[in-house]
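Structure ticket #2291
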Amino acid sequence: MLSYEERITIHEIYSWGTLKDYLKHACYFVKWCKEHHNCSTLDECRYYVDEWLASRSILSAYTQKLEASALAKVFDCTTENFIKTATRHRSDITRSRKKAKRDKNFSETKNKEFIDFCKATGLRKEELKCLRGTQLIYKNGLYYIGVSHCAKGGRYRESPIISNVDDVCARGR
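Resolution: structure written out below.
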């Protein structure tokens, strides 16, 4: 049986970006159904989800999973009701893997402390710009950084400090 949180997330979409992506891929699917199978309702389209996903197997695993998730929202089910999509691997991500022009003069050796801090906290660039020492939180024997200002989506989150805890905490005091 699904937990309360799992049941809620099946029926909710939490960001405008996700909504736009799901809508776009659901429309691709519906147009494909109309062209290939002359479907006129969503109920008629439901039968062809597996065929659609199989035809999309040439796409990246991330895109396949996005499309399966979008259709799961449309048909109010989970992706487990469809054929299995390709497995995602972090090593397959191609964006942001090369040196950016803006980082041409950035020295990793001179900025080692900064890089270690970023790896330890997992903060995004905008969150780092707004960071204050008062955001350091000690809770249940662990240290976190409470991020609300400049956070993605404007939502509060607590980012755990996963390494170099002493160094990060020393900077926060």
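Closing remark: The chain is about 45% helix and 10% strand.
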